[in-house]
Specification:
- The complex is a heterodimer of chains A (about 475) and B (about 210).
- Chain A has about 475 residues and is an alpha/beta fold.
- Chain A contains 15 helices and 19 strands.
- Chain A has helices spanning about 5-15, 35-45, 80-95, 110-115, 145-155, 180-190, 205-210, 215-220, 240-245, 255-265, 315-325, 355-365, 385-390, 395-400, 450-460; strands at about 15, 20-25, 30-35, 55-60, 95-100, 125, 140-145, 160, 165-170, 200-205, 230-235, 275-280, 290, 300, 340-345, 375-380, 405, 425-430, 445.
- In chain A, the strands form 5 sheets. Chain A has a 5-stranded parallel beta sheet, with helices on one face. Chain A has a 5-stranded parallel beta sheet with strand order 17-16-15-18-19.
- In chain A, helix 12 runs parallel beside helix 15.
- With about 210 residues, chain B is α/β, with parallel strands linked by helices.
- Chain B has a single domain, classed as Aconitase, domain 4 (Alpha-Beta Barrel).
- Helices cover about 30% and strands about 15% of the residues of chain B.
- In chain B, the strands form 3 sheets. A 4-stranded antiparallel beta sheet of chain B has the order 1-8-9-10, with no helix packed on it.
- Chain B is globular, with a radius of gyration of 20 Å.
- Classes of the chains: A alpha/beta (about 475), B alpha/beta (about 210).
- At the A-B interface, strand 2, helix 2, helix 3, helix 5 and strand 8 of A face helix 4, helix 7 and helix 8 of B.
- The complex binds iron/sulfur cluster.
Chain lengths: ~475, ~210
C-alpha cells in the first residue's frame, strides 16, 4: 500500500521503534526562543548535560524583546530583561547560534526559520512553541513541544514520539481573489472545530493549495495547532524548491541536488490512505473574521454573530455566552456594528513580505488612512522582511496612512506582561489566537487576514475589502 | 521526577471545554526564567477579579471553601489546548494538582504533564458527569482515589471503581518517576548508527560548525 507524505517523513526519521506505536525520532533542527528556550537551556546546564549537536540548534529573541525603535535588553515586560540575559548567556555557554536583538536576521522564530533555510522540506524540526507547525508549509515535519522535550532533543538529537493519526483536508475549487490563506484556514477551523484535527498530522491538499505561494502555505499551516493538530503539512513542489534555493543555511552544490531529489519524492502516493479525510470547497469562500474567544468562533465578514438560542448544545451555549460577554458582542448583530479601537498586522501567521505588500497595496489603491481614534501597528516578522519592505517603500505607505512601523518580533500577538492594548479595546488582528486575555487583560481580539485588518483599520469598524459591491437588485 | 502511584484528594470541577494554556497560566504570570513561582498565577484570569491586585473572584471554583486544597481537577474536552508552554503543567503542580480528569487533552499538554508526573486521565463524558456530580455533593468528603497501578478511580464506596486506560510506557514512566532523557541516553549508540546511515542518504541535513 502507498504511503502518505507523513508516513514517508516519519520513516526517514525513525531511529528505532519503541513500544506502543512510539518511536524514537531523529530531530534535524532545534529552534529556541527566549520565552521557553531559556528554561530548557538553563535546565540542561543545571543537570550538567550538553547539546549533542550544537550546529543543529538555533535560538532567537522574539517573544519578550520590545518592538519599539531603539530597543535593547530593557523591556516593557517587567522581568523581560532576565529572560533576554539568561538566554544570551546560556546560548553562549552552549555555543548555539543566537539571532540576538541587534542581529540583522533576528525575527519571529517561525518567520526566520524558513527565511534562513534552517527549516527545509523533509527536515524534522522542533521548537518549544506550538506554532512550529508553520514549517509544515514547506513539507518539513515540524511540531511544537514543551520545554522538557526541547531539553530531551538538545541532549539526544531525538524525541520519543507517539505516532499521530493522519488526516487529509482536501480543498477543491479556486480561492476567490478576496480570500487569502488566512481566510482558508479560519474557515477550515470553523468547519472542523478547534479540536477537529486533535492529535493528527494533517496534510492540506488540492488545487487551491497548489496555487498558493509558499508564504501563504506557511500562513495556512501556522494555524494547524488551532485545529489541535500534531502538525500540518503541504507536499513540497517546484515553488517550494525555488523558495529554498540560496537561503543562508540551505544546501549548495551537490548537496543541493541530493536534497531536491529527496524533496521531490515527498508526496503522498495515490493509493495511500488517511485515518480521516475532509473535503472543503473554496469557490465561494468569503473573508473570515472571528467574533468570539476560540478560533472556531468565525463567521463570514458580512455574517451575523450567532444567537445563543441557536447553539447546538448546552456546552456550546455556555461557551458562546461566555465568549459574547467577554467580546462585548451580541447574537444577531454584525461585526461592523462595533467600533474598532486598534489594528495589528504582524505575528508568525501574517508578518511576511507578501502580507505587508497585500496590506500596503490596499492603502495605495484606496488612498485611505487609518480611521480617527484607531491605534494601528505594523510589525514585520523579521529583520529581512523589514529591510525588504523598506526597500520597496512599504514603511512609508504604512506610516503615511497612520500605522506605527515597528522592529521585528512577536510584539502584541500575545501579552507578555508589558505592552498591551488595554481593557475592552477591540482589535482587528492578523494573529492566530483570540483567547481571553491573549493580547492583554480584557482585550477583544478579532482575528482576520491582513487585507481585512487594514480595510477595517481604515473604516473604523470590522469589514472586508470587497470592492465588488453586491447590489440588491 | 516524583513517582505517581496513587492519589486521593479533593477534586475541583471546572466544567469547561477548550481550557487553553493562556487561561491556565497567562504569559504575564510567567515572570521568571524558571519552573517555579507560578502557583499564584494559575487560572489568574478566572480566579481574580483584578489579577494585579490578586482580588479573588468568589465565583471561581478554587476560591470556594468546599474545594479548598483541591489536588484533582475535572474538566471538559481539549484541556490544555493552545500555547505549548510547559508552565501550565508546572503551575498546576505547584498549586497542588496531581491529576487532571477530562474528556480529552491537547497533545502537547498531555506530553508535558507526563514528563512532570502530572497524571492526565481521559474519560467518557458520562463518566466525567457522574464523578463531577458525586464530588459536588460534598467535595471535602467525596474525594476520588486514583490508583495508577490498578488503573482505576474509586469514587462512591458503594459504586464500582471507574477503570481508565493509559499507555503502558506512560504508566511506567509515572509509576517509576523515570527521567526520559536518561532513558533515551541508553539508545545513544543506536542514534549514532542512525546518523551514519542517514548521512549517506541525506548528506544535506548535516551542517558543519
Ligand atoms: S508571533 Fe505570536 S503566535 Fe507566533 S510565535 Fe510569536 S507569540 Fe507565538
Amino acid at each position: 500500500m502507498g504511503q502518505t507524505l507523513f508516513d514517508k517523513l516519519w520513516q526517514v526519521h525513525e531511529v528505532e521503534a519503541l513500544a506502543e506505536g512510539q518511536s524514537l525520532l531523529y530531530v534535524d533542527r532545534i529552534f529556541l526562543h527566549e520565552r521557553t528556550g531559556s528554561v530548557a537551556l538553563n535546565s540542561l546546564l543545571d543537570r550538567n548535560r550538553s547539546v549533542r549537536r550544537r550546529e543543529h540548534a538555533f535560538c532567537t529573541m522574539d517573544h519578550i524583546v520590545d518592538t519599539l525603535p531603539g530597543r535593547g535588553d530593557e523591556t516593557l515586560m517587567p522581568s523581560g530583561r532576565d529572560f533576554i540575559v539568561a538566554t544570551r548567556s546560556a546560548a553562549q555557554e552552549m555555543d548555539i547560534r543566537l539571532f540576538d536583538i541587534q542581529d540583522p536576521d533576528q525575527g519571529i522564530v517561525h518567520v526566520i526559520s524558513p527565511e534562513l533555510g534552517i527549516a527545509l522540506p523533509g527536515l524534522s524540526l522542533i521548537c518549544p512553541d506550538s506554532h512550529t507547525c508553520t514549517l509544515g508549509g514547506l513539507g518539513a515535519l515540524a511540531w511544537g513541544v514543551g520545554s522538557t522535550e526541547a531539553e530531551h532533543a538538545l541532549a539526544t538529537s531525538t524525541l520519543r514520539v507517539a505516532r499521530p493519526q493522519t488526516m487529509r483536508v482536501h480543498f477543491s475549487g479556486t480561492l476567490p481573489a478576496q480570500a487569502t490563506a488566512k481566510d482558508l484556514i479560519l474557515y477550515t477551523i470553523r468547519e472542523l472545530s478547534a479540536a477537529g484535527g486533535a492529535g493528527c498530522a494533517i496534510e492540506f491538499s488540492g488545487r487551491a493549495i497548489e496555487q498558493l505561494p509558499v508564504e501563504s502555505r506557511l500562513t495556512l499551516c501556522n494555524m494547524s495547532t488551532e485545529l489541535s493538530a500534531f502538525t500540518g503539512l503541504i507536499a513540497p513542489d517546484e515553488k517550494t524548491i525555488e523558495y529554498c534555493h540560496g537561503r543562508r543555511f540551505a544546501p549548495e552544490g551537490d548537496a543541493w541536488s541530493q536534497a531536491i531529489e529527496h524533496w521531490r519524492s515527498l508526496q503522498t502516493d495515490p493509493d495511500a490512505t488517511f485515518d480521516f479525510e475532509h473535503h472543503l470547497s473554496v469557490d465561494n469562500l468569503k473573508p473570515q473574521i472571528s467574533w468570539g474567544t476560540s478560533p472556531q468562533h468565525c463567521i463570514d465578514w458580512d455574517g451575523s454573530v450567532p444567537r445563543i438560542a441557536d447553539a447546538p448544545d448546552d456546552a456550546s451555549a455556555a461557551a458562546w455566552r461566555q465568549a459574547q460577554d467577554y467580546m462585548g458582542v451580541t447574537g444577531g448583530t454584525r461585526l461592523s456594528d462595533y467600533p474598532l479601537d486598534a489594528a495589528f498586522i504582524g505575528s508568525c501567521t501574517n508578518s511576511r513580505l507578501s502580507d505587508l505588500r497585500l496590506a500596503a497595496a490596499f492603502l495605495n489603491r484606496t488612498g485611505q488612512r487609518v480611521a480617527k481614534g484607531v491605534k494601528a501597528l505594523c510589525v514585520p516578522g523579521s529583520g529581512q522582511v523589514k529591510r525588504a519592505a523598506e526597500a520597496e517603500g512599504l514603511d512609508e505607505i504604512f506610516r503615511g496612512a497612520g500605522f506605527e512601523w515597528r522592529e521585528p518580533g512577536c510584539s502584541m500577538c500575545f501579552f507578555a506582561g508589558g505592552e498591551s492594548f488595554g481593557q475592552e479595546v477591540r482589535v482587528a488582528s492578523t494573529t492566530n489566537r483570540n483567547f481571553e486575555g491573549r493580547q492583554g487583560l480584557g482585550v477583544r481580539t478579532h482575528i482576520a487576514s491582513p487585507l481585512t485588518v487594514v480595510a477595517s483599520a481604515c473604516a473604523g469598524y470590522l469589514l472586508a475589502d470587497t470592492p465588488v459591491v453586491d447590489t440588491a437588485a | 521526577m516524583k513517582p505517581f502511584i496513587r492519589h486521593e484528594g479533593v477534586a475541583a470541577v471546572l466544567p469547561r471545554d477548550n481550557i487553553d494554556t493562556d487561561a491556565i497560566i497567562p504569559s504575564r504570570e510567567m515572570r521568571t526564567v524558571s519552573r517555579s513561582g507560578l502557583a499564584d498565577g494559575l487560572f489568574a484570569p478566572w480566579r481574580y477579579t483584578d489579577p494585579d491586585a490578586r482580588a479573588a473572584d468568589s465565583d471561581f471554583v478554587l476560591n470556594q471553601a468546599e474545594f479548598s486544597g483541591a489536588s484533582v481537577l475535572i474538566a471538559g474536552h481539549n484541556f490544555g489546548c493552545g500555547s505549548s508552554r510547559e508552565h501550565a503543567v508546572w503551575a498546576l503542580m505547584e498549586y497542588g494538582f496531581r491529576v487532571v480528569l477530562a474528556t480529552s487533552f491537547a497533545t502537547i499538554f498531555r506530553n508535558n504533564a507526563l514528563r512532570n508526573g502530572l497524571l492526565t486521565i481521559q474519560l467518557a463524558p458520562d463518566q466525567i458527569d457522574r464523578i463531577s456530580a458525586w464530588v459536588r455533593r460534598d467535595p471535602q468528603a467525596n474525594q476520588p482515589r486514583i490508583d495508577l497501578e490498578a488503573c482505576s478511580i474509586q469514587t462512591d464506596p458503594a459504586a464500582e471503581a471507574v477503570p481508565f486506560q493509559i499507555e503502558a510506557n506512560a504508566r511506567e514512566m509515572l509509576l517509576k518517576g523515570l527521567d526520559e532523557i536518561g532513558l533515551t541516553e541508553q539508545s545513544l549508540d543506536a542514534i549514532a548508527a542512525f546518523e551514519v546511515r542517514d548521512r549517506a542518504l541525506r548528506p544535506w541535513v548535516y551542517l558543519t560548525g
